[in-house]
């Protein structure tokens, strides 16, 4: 039970830092004199190092063991949160967010590795459900909580609110992790592969967020990316073991995580802004409608095991992604109406569908050997967090481009923003439906791909 509580707190607080800033962004922008392009770097400053370092973080968790890694990551995460609340300029704030992102890159795979090492197969399913439910809850509740804190105490408290979570997790850590468990591997993870992979991921994602430098950033990110791929194919000391890259279920799950996050994260980051600028709501009211997503996730989660038993994990995920896509289309259909209530059905569909994506994580971890649990967890989370960063950048690029066209055509700024948001919803829906199609096409695992806590047959 304590492991589940630790997982729940970690999932919630690391995702909360992706979403709580969304509703506070207008207040931060007014206080610090920032435009829309600068505001997205408050989110990307956290997401980019988080996503880019996750594969390396997972490999290091396997080597160092979870207790030391988690303790150091929690302390750094708390330090970054405190610095963010005290920041008085954009660059100080982004730096604090980078510190939190680096810490989260070690925190999340360390926590997810406990799914594989501390729990049996049934416990892993429950743990993955708790993890995904807390992710979705933080995704939905973050803007509402951010609005309440901004209105009552000021935007600095959207960062200070992390500190109680950090303290609680530090208390739980000694009773949920063994002090000496580390991976059986004796070689250190390859530093060159870590640097190449991280550099490529960060630069390629930044290319979407900075239209002025898209081509140079794409070129700069592609070079280390190609070198990383060539090195991984030829090297004996791979960052990502062949046992993972050769597992079709695991690699398919990575693709599903990527498409789900692309479809959801960018939309959710800009939704509170739309609610304030187009619907005329305050910071609290702008975030409250997203609570419906969390309620729908909680309500639908108990139905997930029954769906998996009847239809299998991949078809369950496919159905969930299709429902999420339908919710995004429902929002797009009513977005021209400057009222909250027509948006309720779409938000409920997004939440309910997201609950059925739980098997993306639990099934992927079931088919890897225990000694690769940290690396596998890091890669799964990297796919999700990379998709979050890409989602904010991609949907932001679509929204900004369409908004600019509408402004040039003479539309009022709120109406132009709504037009850009609708285009973003349609792009997100297309990506999510693509994920649903991928889920039904992922092949079943071969017998040699399936492992148990006692499985030692996977090759490095």
Automatic annotation (TrEMBL):
Which Gene Ontology cellular component terms are annotated? Answer: plasma membrane
What InterPro entries does the entry give?
A: MFS, MFS_dom, MFS_trans_sf
Source organism superkingdom: Bacteria
Q: Which residues form the Major facilitator superfamily (MFS) profile domain?
A: 3-447
Q: Give the stretches traversing the membrane.
A: 38-61, 73-92, 98-115, 127-149, 155-176, 188-207, 213-230, 250-274, 286-304, 316-334, 346-365, 386-405, 417-440
Q: Provide the alphabetized UniProt keywords.
A: Membrane, Transmembrane, Transmembrane helix, Transport
Intracellular or extracellular location(s):
Cell membrane
| Gene Ontology molecular functions | transmembrane transporter activity
What's the protein's topology in the membrane?
Answer: Multi-pass membrane protein
Keyword Transmembrane helix: yes or no?
yes
Report what the protein is called.
MFS transporter
């Amino acid at each position: 039970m304590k492991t589940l509580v630790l997982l729940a707190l970690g999932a919630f607080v690391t995702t909360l830092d992706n979403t709580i800033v969304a509703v506070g962004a207008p207040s931060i922008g007014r206080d610090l004199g920032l435009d829309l392009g600068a505001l997205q770097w408050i989110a990307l400053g956290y997401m980019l190092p988080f996503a880019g370092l996750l594969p390396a973080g997972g490999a290091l968790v396997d080597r160092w063991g979870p207790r030391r890694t988690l303790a150091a990551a929690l302390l750094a995460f708390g330090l970054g949160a405190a610095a963010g609340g005290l920041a008085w300029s954009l660059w100080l704030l982004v730096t604090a967010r980078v510190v939190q992102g680096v810490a989260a890159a070690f925190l999340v795979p360390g926590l997810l590795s406990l799914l594989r090492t501390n729990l049996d197969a049934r416990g892993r399913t429950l743990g993955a459900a708790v993890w995904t439910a807390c992710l979705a809850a933080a995704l939905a509740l973050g803007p509402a909580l951010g609005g309440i804190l901004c209105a009552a105490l000021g935007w600095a408290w959207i960062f200070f609110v992390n500190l109680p979570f950090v303290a609680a997790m530090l208390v739980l850590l000694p009773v949920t992790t063994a002090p000496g468990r580390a991976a059986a591997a004796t070689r250190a993870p390859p530093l060159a592969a870590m640097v190449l992979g991280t550099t490529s991921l960060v630069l390629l994602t930044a290319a979407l967020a900075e239209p002025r430098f898209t081509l140079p950033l794409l070129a700069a990110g592609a070079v280390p990316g190609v070198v990383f791929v060539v090195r991984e194919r030829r090297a004996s000391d791979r960052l990502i073991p062949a046992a993972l890259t050769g597992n079709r279920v695991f690699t398919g799950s990575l693709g599903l995580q990527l498409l789900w996050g692309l479809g959801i994260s960018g939309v959710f980051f800009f939704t509170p802004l739309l609610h304030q600028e187009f619907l005329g709501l305050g910071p609290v009211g702008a975030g409250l409608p997203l609570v419906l997503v969390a309620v729908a996730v909680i309500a639908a989660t108990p139905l997930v095991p029954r769906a998996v038993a009847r239809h299998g994990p991949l078809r369950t995920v496919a159905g969930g992604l299709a429902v999420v896509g339908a919710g995004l289309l429902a929002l797009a259909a009513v977005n021209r109406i400057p009222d909250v209530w027509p948006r309720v059905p779409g938000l409920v569909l997004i939440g309910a569908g997201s609950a059925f994506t739980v098997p993306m994580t639990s099934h992927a971890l079931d088919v890897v050997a225990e000694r690769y649990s940290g690396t596998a967890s890091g890669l799964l989370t990297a796919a999700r967090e990379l998709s979050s960063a890409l989602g904010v950048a991609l949907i932001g690029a679509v929204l900004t481009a369409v908004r600019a066209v509408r402004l040039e055509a003479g539309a009022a700024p709120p109406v132009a923003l709504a037009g850009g948001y609708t285009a973003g919803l349609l792009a997100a829906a297309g990506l999510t439906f693509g994920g649903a199609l991928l889920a039904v096409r992922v092949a079943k695992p071969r017998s040699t791909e399936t492992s148990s806590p006692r499985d030692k047959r996977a090759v490095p």
